[in-house]
Known about the structure:
Chain A is α+β, with helices and mostly antiparallel strands. In chain A, about 15% of the residues lie in helices and about 40% in strands.
Amino acid sequence: MTQGLKARLNREILIKGITWLAVAWISMFQVRPAQAQSSTTIDIDGYASAKAVPIAIQGYPQAVTTLLTFHLEVVGFEVTSKNSARYVLQGNGESPVQGILRDSSGGVIFSRRYKASASTRAQAHALADDVSKQILGIPGIGQTKLAAKLKKGRNGEICVLDFDGANLKVLTSDDTVVASPTWYPGFPKSAVLFYTSYVYNNPDIYYHNLASGKRNAASRYSGLNASPAISPDRSKMAMILSKNGSPDVYIKGIQSGKLQQITKTRVEEATPCWSPDSQKLCFVSRATGRPRLWIHDFSTDKSNPLQIIGAASSFEPDWSPDGKWIAFTIQRGGSFRICVCPAEGGKMVELTEGEDPSWAPNSRTLVFTKRTRGGDRTLSLLDVPTKRVKDIPTSSRGLSQPSWSR
Amino acid sequence: MRQISKKILPTRQSESIANQMKAVLQRMAHWTPILVLALTLSTTGSVGCKKSAKPVTPIPPNIGNVQGGDPDYMGSGFDPNASGTFDGLDDGSALDLGDGVMGEDMDLSDGGIDAANRAALESMTSDESFFAPYTVYFGFDSAVVQASEGSKIEAIADHLQNSPTHGVRIAGHCDERGTEGYNMALGEKRAQSVREYLVNLGIAPNRIGTISWGEQRPAVEGRTEAAYNKNRRAEFILLRP
């Protein structure tokens, strides 16, 4: 009797134990789907379905009207006639640039006049910045720059330009292959670019001070030194090195010089980028077969695939400065598309044809590479919430691999 | 009656077998989510990127590449602002890039690069045509050496075994259908797959360098399947002392 009871108790304990273990096991695995669900709180569909704000521009010289129109349309306005506009921006036809912003009922929102000491372009961009801050609540991009690769025959050079295509300057004269320029965070207080050049017959990373014109080697290990990305706290450089026999993600301390290998795979990793808090890296790996985005979390020191619904392969991530989104490229059929998904993964939105997106400091505009029918590459701008695309007007053909200063 | 019961009996047996099977299946169904989860985890699990698979052969310093391997010039850190901060944008005007910006000012002296070693390696003569017939081709978006290409790599191994002073640099290339950034890594992986093949044939790793050109040096221009097939490749460059 006692023995029978004991056996029954033992059996019950055993069954309870197994059940408990099974539940614990299952709930362990369910952590990830649960996290993916929480990402629905960030509504990608809502974010990417805004309507452009109609605004009328009047009373400016032609060049200023053109500049204001381009700038405002890039960040989510639509320049229309006064009748259909919700806002009216009124100038006085002279310089320095003035602007009176009114709502549709004629109420004055602001009235401003810009420093005559600055160039007319700078004044007009400052006005457009004020309009976007006032109406959309987004930081201005009027003083930002783009860095890009400029194709020259079989080779390329690194160049910088204003986001509206003006002031294109070629930085290098390496007459070889150059790749993936990226800004050292903190522009315009500092203006430093990191990029890969084959100038010494190997893909090595250099950093180039735009103020002094000096450049130095940042990474010249054996094999590939590619895709530099500086952490927003400016303490580390992420990059792709192949010195251990396969292209892997590494980070190097800017001050300490300490090198740390982040991935150790037999497959290739590519194009790392940082989260704005410098605590995570997003990069491409084909560790699970097809190339897709992975997140490395420095707080846990673990890498996990980013679960994106609907993306079989994904490339070239860029994390928005507000931390909410990751823009990336997918390949569909023979073409590439720009997509955005929440930084925690989940549902993505396919925005337009193109590749290699880079966020503006306003976490709203993307610059990306577009392939023309003739095969040339050009730069184009995309306002994510309204999905509107504007090509950057430039006479220079063959621009690609853009990076937006921030 | 007997005849009827005879008919019924087999039916009952088969019913009870069906019920048993149902019960087994139901029991299995209980475990299915766990099995699926376990399978999912094993294929896409968090261990993927950390798991150390069969090791690949590191590139030793000083060999095959023009620069001298792993210099420690960054050992003491580096300061992107060392040459002064940028203050040219207060009024929104264009960047003042100065006169010295065109690359002539490159300062490698404090880059810690071993100049003597560089010179020694640069003195090795590159011969790009010697191994031209042995270029190895790859499948779309793949860095796997196909069986059909093995004999070419074996021929390179034979040459290196017979010419102990020679080295080789493997140049990996891609067609233009990938993104530029990814193709840089894929080109390197192709070169390194071929390098691994040579190492497995007994060639010392320190005689084999790699370089990726991504999609920047197509063998054939054009947007045809034939051109793409010719561009996904690894070329051998003979290095003579």
